[in-house]
Write a structure and sequence with these properties.
The protein has nine helices and seven strands; from the N terminus they run ααβαβαβαβαβαααββ. By secondary structure, it is of the alpha/beta class. The chain has a seven-stranded mixed β-sheet with strand order 3-2-1-4-5-7-6, with helices on both faces. The protein starts with 18 loop residues before the first helix and ends with a strand.
Length: 223
């Protein structure tokens, strides 16, 4: 995957400036809080947010534990510029804390960008549903490589759409991101792909119904 082939925020619509307003419709505060609960950041943790977008999840984790090292990675310079403006990267974020770091890079190149085995936790929000299956696999393999043994993976993304109402709502996402890339998520493929990437204890920990379909939170451990 190259810097030119990533799917931008809001998919083919490319309306990056509206991203935060649109994502707010997905009960964002709830599922981001659930992600943070499962991450449970600790002092001196290194936490990598893959496809960090405008930085909302990274900044929430930073507020919860300012002493953790939070690194947001995204290939889109426009979204990273928004993240930097929102976070005020010149600040320290509290006593003994450091502001989140923002790195331009692809989700399938994490070990080369940050170092193999360098992260305690990797999070990713609303990224994998936009990717073709080979790219989903490559990103998950990359998260495995960048995590230390025993490290944690927490993913919030559209998962199995269990009801007719959720499948109908999910069509909104498919209009933006295409059916080919999104349908495997809707069919429930992510736990299988996470396991195939070498993770253990893979589970769907939470399911949040939204007006755009259900968002699942998956938790796994790097063996």
């Amino acid at each position: 995957m190259s810097q030119q082939t990533f799917t931008p925020a809001l998919g083919r619509l490319g309306l990056t400036r509206l991203y935060d307003s649109v994502v707010a419709l997905t009960r964002e505060r709830l599922w981001r809080s659930l992600v943070a609960m499962h991450v449970a950041p600790r002092p001196d943790d290194t936490i990598v947010d893959v496809g960090c977008g405008t930085g909302s999840q990274a900044m929430l984790l930073h507020r919860l534990e300012p002493r953790a090292r939070i690194i947001g990675v995204d290939p889109d310079p426009e979204t990273l510029a928004l993240a930097r403006r929102k976070s005020g990267t010149g600040g320290t974020g509290g006593t003994g804390g450091t502001a989140p770091q923002w790195r331009r890079g692809m989700g399938d190149e994490l070990a080369g960008l940050l170092g193999a085995g360098s992260a305690d936790t990797v999070v990713s929000s609303l990224v994998l549903h936009q990717c073709p299956l080979p790219v989903k696999r490559a990103i998950l393999a990359s998260t495995h490589d960048v995590l230390r043994p025993g490290g944690r993976l927490v993913i919030a993304d559209y998962g199995l759409q269990r009801t007719a109402a959720m499948r109908l709502a999910f069509r909104t996402v498919q209009l933006a991101d295409g059916v080919r890339d999104t349908q495997p998520n809707a069919d429930g493929v992510l736990p299988k792909l996470i396991t195939e990437a070498g993770f253990g204890d893979v589970r769907e920990a939470e399911v949040v119904g939204t007006v755009t379909g259900s968002i699942s939170i998956y938790v796994a451990t790097r063996s």
